[in-house]
Every structure is written in C-alpha cells, then in structure tokens.
Amino acid sequence: MAKNTRKEYRGQVMYSVFVRNHSREGTFEAVRRDLERIRNLGVDIIWLMPIHPIGTLARKGTAGSPYAISDYRAVHPDYGTLEDFRRLVDDIHRLGMKCIIDVVYNHTSPDSWLAEHHPEWFYYKADGSLGNHVGDWTDVADLDYSHPELWDYQIETLKYWAGIVDGFRCDVASLIPLDFWLRARAEVEPVRPGCIWLAESVEPEFIRFARGQGIPALSDSEIFQAFDISYDYDVFPLFQDCLAGKIPLSRYAEAISQQETLYPDNYVKLRFLENHDQLRAAAVIPGEDALVNWTAFLYFQKGMTLLYGGQEAGCAHLPELFEKDPVDWNAGPDRTALLQRLYRLKQHPLLTGSVYQVRALPGDLLVAEHRRGQDRLTGIFSLKGTCGPVAVDVPDGTYPNLADGGRVEVKFGRVTCHGQPIILECCGQAGREAEESQ
Fold first, then answer.
1. Is 200 a catalytic residue?
2. Closest to 302 measured CA to CA, from 250, 354, 242, 376
3. What average pLDDT does the segment 358-363 reach?
C-alpha cells in the first residue's frame, strides 16, 4: 500500500459515470444537471470514464470504445468543451464531492496524436505494424515504456489534469511499469496534494496469461506500493463462480478474509457488484431479496464501495461500450432509499479501522464481522432469502438493526434471520446494556 493512503477511503462511495450513455444527450452538461441526485444517493467521489476523443482507425462499433483514446490532452467534442468539463468539475466540488478521471496509459487508438508524432514510443508486431499484446483489443496499439521520453510526456499530462481533478482511475494499471506509477505519484503530489490513485488491477488468471506470454504484469502486492485503491479482481472471479454454482460460498468468504493477511494494514479494495466491464448485478443475481442482501454486504465490506451509473435504478442491461446506448433510468425498482440508508452505515468508524472476517454458513448465509478491541459490527446476509436461527458472538439483548432501522433480538447467542440483512453493533458498553436489559 502507498504509505500515506488514508483508511478513511474505506468509508466512502464512488460512482462511475459513462458520459456518453449517462443521458440521451451524452454530454458533460447533462451529467452536471444530475449531480444533486447522484450526491443524494450518498456519493463521495465521481469517476468519469474516459473523457477524451476516440480514434477512428480500427474503431469498434459506430461510436467506438472510450478506451481507444486519440488525444490524452483534449476532451471528446461530443461531450462538450473544456470549459463545459471544468464547469462540471466545479459543480462536483461545490456539492462536496471529488472527481477522478480515467487514465488509459497502456494503449492509444492506432491513429492517436502520439502515434502520429511519436511512433517510436509504440509496440510493433513482427511484421512491423502497430500492435498490442492482448489480441482481441483490435482497436488499440500498445505503448512501449522503455522510452524515458514517453514517461515525461505521460506524467506532464497527469500534472495538467491534476490541476483540474482530484485523482485518477488507471486502466489496466498492472501492465505498466511500477516505477512509472511511483514516479507519477511523486510528481503529481505537489500539483494535487492528496491526489487519489485507483488501480484497475487484473484477475489472477490474466496475470498468469500475461506472464506466460512474456508480458510483465503487476500483482496486487506490487500495485499497492503506488496506489491508494485497487480493484477487487483478486476475489471477484470467485464471486462470479459462486453465483454460477461452480464453487461453494465458503471459498469466496475465505478469500475475502485472507486479504487481511496478504496486504498492508491500510489496504483499500474497491468493492463492487458490477462495473462497465461486468454484467449488471440485476442480470446475474436472481430475486429482489438476494439483490438487497448482496447490496448490503457490498456496503458492509472493508473497502470503498463502487456504484456503476444505473445500478440505483435496478438496470439489468449493461450499456454498450462501442455504441450510443443510454441508461434506462426506469428499468427496475428504485433503490435510492436502500443506498441512502446503507451510506449512513458506511460512515460507521469500525468500517474504516477494524480487523475484518467473513464466513459462510449453510443456506447461503454470509456472516461478516468488523472487530476492534471489544467493539464489533456483525452482518448477516441471506443471499437466497434463507430463514432461520444464526449463531452470533453478541450478548443477548435487543439491538437496532442498522440495515433497515428495525429491532433484532439476540437470545441464547442466536438471532433469527427472516431473509433480510441484519447488521448489529456491539461495543463494551452496548454489550453490558444488552445483558442488563434481560
């Protein structure tokens, strides 16, 4: 972990916006008009997916992937002007939120400004043509970081944007040299003190694949030396396998608990159920009760919570990356009230400074606990609506259920689960009072 990473990031929520598809207009101004609604969900940081122009050569689809960037130092003309972008960021700040933008430094479009002016900074295939190391990324050309001048250009670009925004989400950060990220962090800091660095780390299988092809790929332990926050991709494939019935829930729970001993004390994982590269949670998690429980578990987890624009509207359709495909804001049940309630839970101090453990019980129940000294938060999440008694390490008594505002009774060390999330707070004093109430 970066030595100065703040644990307070674990108490925050990030909201991802794909400008093109966030509205029918697909503009910075349309996002700006939606900021108060977003903030009222309980959001601390807005992440804007790439805001730059998209290349035309080898473009996928009609609109093209936002990750096939043609100019790192410009904004997409369809989204608006630089002044429009600055106005959007100013309003994000006015509403008490921060703004980070996507940094796509592994590759550019084949017809990018860099490919035209500095072709020597690129990777070339054996036939002498521009290429990339990941075959199905046919609309991009990889950069070659063996050139010190490329490092200078990229860092100067970061410093320019750091004069406007609060940080960066770094696309496939694992494929770029660690020393580059360490230098970039150090040189950006004077421009934007406390700059937020989020790494899109990669799945273990991708690391194995890349290294097997002779492509250097950073592990999470390396990524955490330069970044504040890393994707949850070390365990996300297990989440997917659980949903598909390929592995028991206990495998997923054990992997989450193991993170506590793999990473430094101030590690911050980005926890999500969906993002722009994954299927919507509403498409893969059957039933409203299951979605509510998984969403409550998402917020309860140790780490920063990520929402992908449209998740709050129950969207099951994942917007296309290569076409104009606006979010359907009337797709499903409005989960605003649930997210607002869970955001209040996210502010609990134990979520930012605790020892965290997760275990699985029969009936697809997850029991998770944040513990610090005698204080603890216990969460029970019934992922298939299972009902029945659950043993908890909490003194007998009646407690507020922080998940829904109701009351829950613990009797003989057990609490009855009715298929909805239960979150209990127990500290030394609360435990004594619960015992005295019997």
1. yes
2. 354
3. 94
Q: Which of 44, 171, 274, 375 is catalytic?
A: 171
The confidence score (pLDDT) of residue 187 equals 98
Q: How far apart are the first and last CA of the chain?
A: 45
44, 139, 142, 200: which one is catalytic?
200
Residue 247 tokens read as 């592995």
Instruction: Please report the pLDDT score of residue 194 as a whole number.
Output: 96
Tell me whether residue 171 is one of the annotated catalytic residues.
yes
Give the pTM: 0.95
Burial class of 326 by CB neighbour count within 10 A (0 to 12, 13 to 18, 19+): middle
Tell me how far apart the alpha carbons of residues 313 and 28 are, in angstroms, rounded to a whole number.
21
Query: Which residue bears the tokens 């099951």?
Result: 316
Q: What's the CA angle centered on 41, arms 40 and 42, to 5 degrees?
A: 85
**Dihedral pair phi/psi, residue 76, rounded to 5°:** -65, 125
Position 385 scores a pLDDT of: 82
The amino acid at 271: R
- Measured CA to CA, the distance from residue 63 to residue 425 in angstroms comes to 49
Q: Classify residue 25 as exposed, middle or buried by CB count within 10 Å of its CB (0-12, 13-18, 19+).
A: middle
Tokens of 191: 């421009």
**Length of the chain measured in residues:** 438
The answer to whether residue 1 scores a pLDDT higher than 70 is no
